[in-house]
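Students often ask why we bother encoding 3D structure as a string. The short answer is that it lets us treat folding as translation between two languages. Here is a chain of 413 residues written in the first language.
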Amino acid sequence: MTTVFEQAGTALRSDRLYVHPDAETELERNGIEFDADARAEVRAVLADADTPVRVAILPESARSGSAADLGNATGQDGSYLIVLSDGVSVSAAENMGFPRGALQRAAQTARGNSDGDIEALIVEFVDRAEDLAAGGTGAASDNGAEGSGSSGYLPLGILLAAGGGGFLIYRRRKRQQEIADLNQVRGALDEDITAYGEELAALDLDVRSDAVPAEAQEEYARALDLYEHAKSAAGRAEQPGHLRPVTAALEQGRWLLACVRARVNGEPVPERRPPCFFDPRHGPAAAEVTWTPAGGVPREVPACQADVVRLQEGQDPDSRMVTVDGERRPYWEAGPAYSAWAAGYYGGFLPAMLWGTMLGSALASGPAYGGYDGAGGYDGGFDGGGFDSGGFDGGGFDGGGFDMGGFGGFDGF
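And here it is in the second language, the structure alphabet:
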């Protein structure tokens, strides 16, 4: 028999808000409103969140479990919140590496501030989860002042007081920031796609020729398909986080082209390796080299053969330069807008390679645009699927059971 948590977990894989049918009945019986408009607003907030948050409204029968059970049933990384149909009992869990118990405290505080309003509870919880993901304490956003290094978003209290109008302002400002960041990265992405297209044209294989090995023909056809997919996905991208599958396609395509060249020349097919750290357009790495960023510490990074030779000869590597605020600089000093762009190329290797750089600091402080999934490894795959790039790594969820305490204010954790 399917449990409440299994039902919720299945639903949450495709929708970040789930209301169990029995909970709907109990909400009505308890006189608690959570109508279609409120659910639409909540879904919009969840969709806009930069860190994955999933919420389930469950019946009283779920009290024996917890949000950790919900996370395990869903099988996807992120933060989870359960609100029982009494509108008071909450449980939260996460496997995002937050300080222990911080998310449960955020849930309790949001509940205390919501005065029994489920929509307000969830909106505040998401706000606090995003603050935790950004390396904060889980406090609700209060960074509405422009020009102070903040994102320019409105404080949550203003959003709730203003109702729908405040929420629309919040979404508009957040969307404007996403568009600005996306436009900043598009130049680099267009350069990448163009360079990849030139590599395809340079090979100029006649895939019907008997002189070309069958394996090379198949790999070239797949590389061509990835080029078309990358162009299409880039055109559909609406925020920087949507660029990860684009660069993942380019990375896989370049490895396929390296395989084609090897087969045509009668050479061994290259091992699947991450691309050259200094410029992913250089293709799959040939070796690991020791590299020290300005003001940083040495670390091992993958490099193409040409950059290996440059470093051995005491020269600077041929680094990938991107435009930031009108200036050209190495991508690892470009800031958080480039996190998903870089993660598509390097996957789980990224944090270790970028530690101590500007982009590395952005990744360490939270999942900027969902760029790094914390997988800790490199599978090199590209499934052409959606944009969430998240995968459940089987790690445990840190969370607490249901809390029915009084409506206390923010506890200052």
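Translate back mentally: The chain has a mean pLDDT of 80. Keep this in mind for the problem set.
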